[in-house]
Structure formats: structure tokens, C-alpha cells
Amino acid sequence: MNRFLTAWKQRSATLAEARQAAFKPSVWLLVPIFLLVFLVAQLASLIVAVPAVLPDVLQHGPEAIDQALNGPKLWVSLFATIPVTAVFIFYMKRIERRSYLSMGFTRGGTAKRYLQGLGWGFAMCIAALGIAWALGGMRFEGFTGQIPWGMLLLLFVGFLFQGMSEEVVCRSFLMVSAANRAPLWIAVALNSLIFAAMHLANSGVTFFSFANLVLYGVFASFYFLRTDNVWGIAALHTAWNFTQGSVLGVEVSGRAIQDRLMHFGATDAPDMLSGGKFGLEGGVATTVVYLAGILILVFWPDRQQAEKEA
After folding, report:
1. H or E, element range at 232
2. Would you call 97 helix, strand, or coil by DSSP?
3. Nearest 10 degrees: CA dihedral of 53, 55, 56, 58?
4. Which of 5, 23, 197, 237 is deepest in the core (most CB within 10 A)?
5. How do residues 48-66 score in pLDDT, each as one tens digit?
């Protein structure tokens, strides 16, 4: 595996550009920096979200914030990830003095990369559901009576921002910055563990779901490194979450989506087969899909790279 990481690092324009940064914190310093910047980003996100739920708070008290943002106003929390992305980009630009290219915002072929990511995210989610259904962990419970097309569109746009935000934080920032001062495998492991830890407060989280989140972090890191840009994995992240929650009606990392096209629910089978309250990401079906994705990224022939070397 290290052979592939070494090859990706050697040919990565993104990592090469990142090495031109003016400030390159060590891995030990990078973690407290991340925590500080993340705190500032969360405060910025809260400032954006609170006005939208203020009527709920005035009527029902502070506990209404969580109920609103995880219910009818979920779209608010998705759009509130925009300032999170902005804060981390500001840090990378102004403190580390990194270019947009070093964050994976490559030019040329952006639309193609994004559409490919959306397609892979949709296909992977459907595959995970199919495996869980075949194992007896999931069952189809029907379509929504009156499909909320307008809200589904709004949620899709919100997931576009949310998917990009988590990839910028964990891959563009954590992984790339760590790779400046540490072996690439450490950078991959660090951002994957922190990505999983960011979901520990979610409803229904288990050791198995945590392990799957770490596995996704590894997969996302490999996708970023192999494609050498952030566009594709951000789109894949978006498609996975939107398909899981708003199309299939399955919990997204423990969060139930009220506005959905259809609904698949867990059976009485063990949570390892269905994912339990955490959704598909808490079950073995997702483990299989992520592992398959990692193997494809590592071993599938790279025709574009082969053409360059020919």
C-alpha cells in the first residue's frame, strides 16, 4: 500500500504546490491548530444558523435549536457549513500561505470530475443498500405520499456545500498540511481518525460505525490522491449523503431526513446488517463497499497516467 501512496505523492501537483507553503506546522502542532480553527468555524456556522431558528428558540427554548436543525430546518445546518469552509480556506491562504491548487481546487475538467464523483457516490450508496437488503438488514417501506420536490432540491444544494466542507477540512487541510511534514500514510491516518471523531456525538454511533467512518476517511483520502483534486470526492460525499437520506430515506450518520423520496427501514436483523440507528454507515454493507472502493482506487489501471508515461 505504501508503494501506491509514494507514487501518488511523487506525481501529485497538489502536494507539490502545498510544499511551497510559507508555514508548515508539524503534525503535533497541526492538531491543536485544527481544534482552534474548527472552534472558530463552528462559531461562524452558529452565527449563520441561529437567526433561522430564533423563532423556534423564543417559543420552545434553547433545546429547539437541535430539534429544528435536525428536523424541518435541516437545510439551515447544511448551508451553515459554508462559513466552516470559508474559515478553513482563510486559514490556509493567510496563515500557511497556500494556494487554491494546494487545496485541490484544480482547474480544467472540473465539471467532468464533479459529475463523475456524483455518479460514484450514488452508485456506492445504492450498492450498500443492495447488500444490506440482500443480507436481510433492510426493507422497503414505500414512497412518500406527497413528494416534496422543492425541499429535495434545497437539500441537494445544501448537501453540495456540506460535502465540500468536510472534504476541505479533512482532506484539503488536514491531510495535505500533515503530508508536508510527515509520511503520507500518517497524513491519511490522521485525517481519517479526526473525520470519524467529528461524528462521535451523532445519534446511534457504535464502534462499528466509527470504524466505517475511519474507513471512509481512508477511501476519501485515496480518491483525493489518485484524482489529485478535491472536486470529485466532494461530489461523491454529497451524492452519498443525499442519496442515503433524501432518496432512500435512511439515516445519514444517525440523522433522519424528514423530506425524502422513499423510505427503507431496518429489519429485526442485527445492527451489523442494517446499520441500526446510525443508518447504512453503521453496517457491514458499507464496510464491503468502502473496502471495494479502496481496492479499485489502488489497483485499477490509471489510463491517463499510463498515457502520460508512454
Report:
1. helix 231-242
2. coil
3. 120
4. 237
5. 877 766 566 545 555 555 5
Joined grid coordinates for residue 307: 498515457
Q: How many residues does the chain have?
A: 310
**Contact assessment for residue 294 and residue 224, using Cβ atoms and an 8 Å cutoff:** no
Closest CA to 158 of 40, 51, 252: 252
Q: How far apart are alpha carbons 33 and 37 in whole angstroms?
A: 6
17 vs 96: CA distance, rounded Å: 12
Report yes or no on whether pTM surpasses 0.70: yes
- Burial of 19-47, coded b for 16+ CB within 10 Å and e otherwise, reads eebeebbebeebeebbeebbebbeebbee
Contact 225, 208 (CB under 8 A): no
